[in-house]
Design goal:
Blueprint lengths: L1 H14 L7 E5 L8 E4 L6 E3 L9 H13 L4 E5 L5 H4 L2 H7 L2 E6 L8 H14 L3 E4 L5 E2 L5 E7 L2 E2 L32 E6 L2 E5 L5 H8 L10 E3 L11 H7 L3 E4 L9 H8 L6 E6 L15 E3 L9 E5 L5 E5 L5 E4 L2
Parallel strand pairs: 3-4, 4-5, 5-6, 11-12, 12-13, 13-14, 14-15
Antiparallel strand pairs: 1-2, 1-16, 2-3, 7-8, 8-9, 8-10, 10-11, 16-17, 17-18
Helix pairs in contact: 2-4
């Protein structure tokens, strides 16, 4: 009887434990694509992009595994930043593993080659099975538990600064334009995700000239706590003007072993005032030891890897922790 009573008390204590109060963000390794899962406490799940298709359903499997860890049983909002295979190629395979309720995107693809048309047609077919939300800059993604503001999309940027932003950006004086980007990258849906006082910026693969429209001559975005390094750390994105405007405390780079992770971007990140650390999903082979983060901050060291993830846990006061699933290293960034 005593044993039975003890078991009951343990069960009662377990069931009385408070629900999670923090936002969990999983940066899932999709080998140089993007798949970022947001799981706010008691709210709707948000997945930004789905990684690649093919590869024996590798990326869909990794997303489903992260969702299980986060206690997510369905994707309430799937935000596709733009229509390239490393971001939207895995939609069909993900839909086999998890229900998807709402599909968020910028509208039709601007690319018209055969491969682009097939990719967009496949996506549209699965999108038709859920609810479609086409967004433009200034819109909110209508989800519970997170404040998600669209700041770019369809080649346009927000016209007015976000609340608390709008300060002049001195770095703009040295800005030099690049060639016009006519691809889907420049159409990327970029968002500011806010959970209490915590702010994160994810601009997809938004390119150099479009970044200027967001932060010059005035910084329309304001400062953030964490930044998803744009375009996998490619040097046609991540201008010094953008990085200095955002002034993140931590950056997360969804690079691959041989995709993204450029030396130029690494140097820009290192020179950004206020940035304490850059975390990487992969060791960037071309960068060598001098142009990669230290071992504790890299989820996957070897080119042939196990798909380890990085996890960010944010509190409403703005403090957050990032954890590396490969080596269990954690670092907390105070408010």
């Amino acid at each position: 009887m005593k044993l039975l009573g003890s078991v009951f008390l343990l069960f009662a204590a377990a069931t009385a434990l408070p629900a999670a109060k923090n936002l969990e963000v999983y940066f899932i390794d999709v080998e140089g694509g993007q798949a970022t899962l947001f799981a706010p406490p008691g709210g709707d799940s948000l997945l930004i992009d789905t990684g690649w298709g093919g590869f024996n359903r590798r990326d869909a499997g990794r997303i489903a595994a992260a969702a299980k860890l986060a206690g997510v049983k369905r994707i309430d909002y799937l935000l596709i930043t733009h229509f390239h295979t490393d971001h939207a190629g895995g939609v069909a395979q993900l839909a086999e593993k998890l229900p998807i309720r709402n599909f968020v995107d910028h509208g039709a693809s601007v690319e018209t080659d055969k491969a682009a048309e097939v990719l967009f047609a496949t996506y549209k077919d699965f999108r038709s099975k859920g609810n479609h939300i086409q967004v433009k800059p200034g819109d909110k993604v209508p989800m519970k538990g997170l404040d998600v503001t669209v700041v770019s999309g369809g080649g346009e940027a927000i016209a007015s600064p976000l609340p608390g932003a709008g300060q002049p950006n001195p770095a703009c004086a040295s800005f030099k334009k690049m060639d016009l980007d006519k691809t889907e990258n420049a159409q990327s849906v970029g968002v500011i995700v806010q959970f209490g006082d915590f702010r994160l910026a994810d601009l997809g693969d938004l390119t150099w000239n479009k970044e200027y429209d967001l932060v010059c001559p005035a910084n329309k975005l304001g400062k953030v706590d964490a930044f998803v390094v744009s375009h996998h750390g490619t040097s046609s994105s991540n201008s010094p003007q953008l990085l200095r405007a955002l002034s993140p405390r931590a950056a997360v780079e969804n690079d691959g072993a041989k995709k993204g992770g450029s030396v130029e971007v690494w140097k820009t990140l290192k020179e950004t005032p206020g940035l304490q650390d850059t975390w990487q999903l992969h060791f960037a082979v071309d960068g060598g030891k001098d142009n990669n983060a230290a071992d504790p901050f890299i989820a996957n060291i070897d080119e042939i890897c196990e798909g380890k993830w990085l996890k960010l846990t944010a509190m409403k006061d703005g403090a957050f922790t990032i954890e590396n699933s490969r080596n269990k290293y954690q670092k907390t960034y105070a408010k």
